[in-house]
Design goal:
Elements (H helix, E strand, L loop, with lengths): L1 E6 L5 E7 L1 H4 L5 H15 L58 H17 L3 E4 L9 H11 L4 E4 L5 H8 L4 E4 L6 H6 L2 E5 H11 L1
Length: 206
């Protein structure tokens, strides 16, 4: 089992915690991680882009000039792609970009992402994270104490004070064990978890 340090809100080491190898010590499957990221980004796409082909542009039914004898190149319609105001060749049409991944693939990808963060020493465990009031400065002080900037902060419960204190800090996002995903884990330089969040993740994914 991997052992990582546990820090308090002042950034001081107060102990260690053993991470479950079934979640934080698996063999990293880069293919599944890549697939999970592509899946998430693809599922976000609206797919509403549309342009008209030559058959959909209004007008252009009459041949602009006779076939021969004008000195011009032969033309059949003023709505052909080479004309201004003409249709678009292979025009994009609305489509659904989303695709599905199996549950086992999603879990394996998430475990791989978490394991990669442990291997790169980019996973920090906090003893606890609680604020008496909504204070952006208080959250910033915690991050400064841990010497992290671009971070994904994962707490077990949806603590309003923590969420709202982190909301105005650029490159910082909060999440719950049930809402973490591969894209966010890889997007942020550091993953900061509370001890309770670690236990909750291990309980669900182990």
């Amino acid at each position: 089992m991997a052992s990582v340090s546990v820090y308090n809100m002042e950034g001081k080491e107060v102990g260690t915690i053993e991470l479950n190898d079934a979640v934080f010590g698996v063999e990293v499957n880069e293919h599944l991680v890549h697939m999970a990221v592509v899946n998430q980004l693809a599922n976000k796409r609206q797919g509403t882009q549309k342009a008209k082909t030559r058959s959909e542009v209004s007008g252009g039914g009459r041949k602009p000039w006779r076939q021969k004898g004008t000195g011009h190149a032969r033309q059949g319609s003023t709505r052909a792609p080479q004309w201004t105001g003409g249709g678009v060749v292979f025009a994009p049409t609305p489509r659904d970009y989303s695709f599905k991944m199996n549950k086992k693939e999603k879990r394996a990808a998430l475990k791989s992402a978490l394991t990669s963060r442990v291997q790169e020493n980019k996973l920090i465990v906090l003893e606890d994270l609680k604020f008496d009031a909504i204070k952006t400065k208080a959250m910033q002080n915690v991050l400064d104490g841990l010497k992290v900037s671009k971070a994904l902060v994962v707490t077990k419960d949806n603590d309003t004070n923590v969420v709202l204190s982190a909301r105005n800090i650029p490159d910082v996002q909060t999440a719950l064990p049930s809402t973490i995903n591969v894209y966010d884990i890889l997007k942020y330089n550091t993953v900061v978890l509370t001890k309770a969040a670690v236990e909750a993740i291990e309980e669900v994914y182990a």
